[in-house]
Amino acid sequence: MWNLFHLKSIEVILVSVEEYVGIVIGTGSAMSIVDPLLGENDGKVAVIDKDEPGGICLTRGCIPSKNLLYPADLVREIEKAQKFGITAPVNKIDFNQVMERMRSHIDPEIRSIERGLSGSEALDYYREPAEFVEPYTLKVGGQRIRSDLILLCTGSKPLIPPIEGIEEVDYLTSRSVLELETRPSSLIIVGGGYIGVEYAHFFSSMGTDVTVVEMKPRILPRAEPEISRLAEEKMKRYMDVSTGRRAVEIRGGPSGEKELVTVEDGGKDKDIFSAEEIMIASGRAPNTDLLNPKAGGIETDEDGWIKVDERLETSQEGVWALGDALGRHMFKHAANYEARVVYRNAILNRETEVDYHAVPRAIFGHPKVASVGMGEAEAVERYGKEEIAIGSQKYENTAKGEAMGVEDYFVKIIVKRDSGKILGAHIVGPQAPILIQEIVNLMYTEDGNFDPIREGMHIHPALSEVVERAFFNLTSVDHYHHHLNRN
Ligand SMILES: Cc1cc2nc3c(=O)[nH]c(=O)nc-3n(C[C@H](O)[C@H](O)[C@H](O)COP(=O)(O)OP(=O)(O)OC[C@H]3O[C@@H](n4cnc5c(N)ncnc54)[C@H](O)[C@@H]3O)c2cc1C
Fold first, then answer.
1. Which of 132, 174, 287, 483 would suit a FRET pair with 103, their CA atoms being 20 to 30 Å apart?
2. Pocket-testing residue among 33, 127, 154, ligand 1, by greatest number of atoms within 8 A of Cβ
3. What tens digit of pLDDT does each residue of 329-367 get?
């Protein structure tokens, strides 16, 4: 196919446009749609990614970070052994070995995906940035390509806040941190969200002096307030945590270290932190600055996240978006779920609407935090205080929790008082991301009721009893807070 393109006002040139049955931008979660797309159509698919293939989860997100966090968990477990009469000091940590092990798991997978993409005759793989030039047509490398079916799975990148001097000083992000070969002796992490908290756990376990600086009044600002408070208290055993402080300047210090100037949020009171390295983990930003979605007739919100309808179709018919690019639930499992919705709608021509009522979230720090559904404030706002009940249970008040010597950690669940429908659940403590799954699954049953938890036998003595017991301890919102304040 040939298209006319205007150069300046008078020159006109002929440019070849390669036509595809589908174009996929981003080799993360949309990859599961590529095979069915090829199966349903005669013709080639274009798969585009400007970075190494596999998406952020594999290349610099979930997988590398969890490969690093497991040894960090081991360090804390070994240290805890002392409490049980076992002396097992951590004598030496080979930081580079920990990093190499992580890289040795990631690199072969990336290479294998790369081989699969490059060796397939059914698709063309472009390792270039793609940019819309007009609806349904993109420029990629020197090539123009076109399709009536386009999947935008463009992900997100670290948000770099406007801090004075940031351009002049080297800093780490969740991407560059994976290249480290030597452990920084001290590290300031700007941002107390889940990425900041997970890396704070990693580096502090490895022996780095860590300071977390969070602008909001509490770390993990999206968690329940009592969970944030407890997590902060526990983290402070291993690092400094400073909340309610905004980073305003980064600069080199007198002896080669880096300095972070902060001010009290809403005030002028300055505090300066210094460390060998600074890591910015202050949120995620969209990649749409590269994509030029406007030229493709694709609407974004004011921050650049791609707008979609309930079926995940963008403002341009036949162009679908999913995953982090939507700026909604930036988790791999959410992106995978959205890929299934797009597959049904775009390939099978169904009318499936997305349902986000039970998106689980997990933070693999120390302590671990997991949640699903509504927080208490949202449930109260939606239904009123009288209509909901809260259940809670401390780990230490179950046989297994006590055996493990767990202190202070707990499960909190929020249910509809009349129907027993589960509205949300929040867990802080060991195995929280596993324990929450039982509740997530029940939230997908027809009535989302908690009866199966109360009826089903829970293995004794296993940690799952802490979840079961929370549902036996239902009380009013006021009573829950009265009890919380007393403890
Ligand atoms: C440090 C860290 C830890 C994380 N840990 C977890 C976790 O434990 N659990 C969890 O569920 N989630 C985790 N996440 C989030 C998870 O990685 C993302 O939600 C998920 O990878 C999003 O997948 P995606 O398919 O939407 O996009 P991505 O995997 O981000 O893929 C998008 C790809 O598109 C490419 N691209 C973008 N624009 C263009 C363009 N114009 N042209 C060409 N290519 C383009 C990008 O380079 C990228 O490779 C973590 C993220 C980070 C950063």
1. 287
2. 154
3. 999 999 999 999 999 999 999 999 999 999 999 999 999
